[in-house]
Amino acid sequence: MKVKIKRLGKEGPYFQTYDLEVDGTPTVLEILSRIKEEQDPTLAFRAMCRSSICGTCGVKMNGRAVLACKERVTEEEVVLEPLEGFPVLRDLVTDHEGIPRRLKTYRLWLEPGEGEVAILPEDSRALEKPSDCILCGICDSVCPPVLEGSPFAGPMVLTRFYRVSSDKRDGVGDERIENVGASSFMGCVHCSNCTLLCPKSCMPERWVTVIEGKLAGMGYIQRSGQDFDFLSF
Ligand code: SF4
Ligand code: SF4
Ligand code: FES
């Protein structure tokens, strides 16, 4: 197998090619680990859990954003690059520091309100998909408005927003939108990239659409048929 990897040198990015004998269909992470152990200890990539839980190992494989520990390689030639939209620290390692920062800005944790609230099995089931999000950033890395640098918060933040604000125990609710400003919650062009590529099948576009419905209810978005007409405010 030929593995071409985009690396970051002192002079800027360049591609380096490695030849590897492989059996079966290894994961991208297994390939990277073997290259590092057997051929080039200077190669940098990141992985922690090796089981699709920590969200740290996202890379682009042949142009498609994937989790390195989950994606199996079937091709004889593979090109690996860092995820789009995140600053590259070294080789395939991108800077994820902005992720917890954004969660803090949007206050995306559960703040229980007054009194006890019963959570029924159907309540948990309704939040199963967004709860599976591992904050890997893959959806943001393929989201056109995010990549263009628009104020849109992106599918990762909005998936987490939906998760916490739809929880019956949450005591903050719409204050999160009012605190940050509704424009951060608008701008999705409904390309479906996020839902197609999410490695945990969280369906981010669906929650973005539900939030748009909420914004319409709050008077921030005027809906006409299937289109959205954004009001100035
Ligand atoms: S929604 Fe999916 S792609 Fe986006 S951060 Fe969560 S797990 Fe990753
Ligand atoms: S569907 Fe919306 S949120 Fe998802 S990638 Fe496209 S523009 Fe971004
Ligand atoms: S190493 Fe944790 S998600 Fe891949």
Overall number of structural domains:
2
What is the mean predicted local confidence, pLDDT?
A: 94
Series of H and E elements: EEHEEEEEHHHHHHHHHEE
Give me the side-by-side strand order of the main sheet: 2-1-5-3-4
Bound molecules: iron/sulfur cluster, FE2/S2 (inorganic) cluster
Overall number of strands: 9
CATH architecture tag of the largest domain = Orthogonal Bundle
Strand count, sense and barrel status of the largest sheet are:
5 strands, mixed
C-alpha Rg (nearest Å): 20 Å
Please identify the top-level CATH class of the largest domain.
Mainly Alpha
Q: Helix segment count? A: 10
Task: Give the tags.
two-stranded antiparallel sheet; 10 helices; binds iron/sulfur cluster; 5-stranded mixed β-sheet; disordered C terminus; Ubiquitin-like (UB roll); Fumarate Reductase Iron-sulfur Protein, Chain B, domain 2; 31% helix
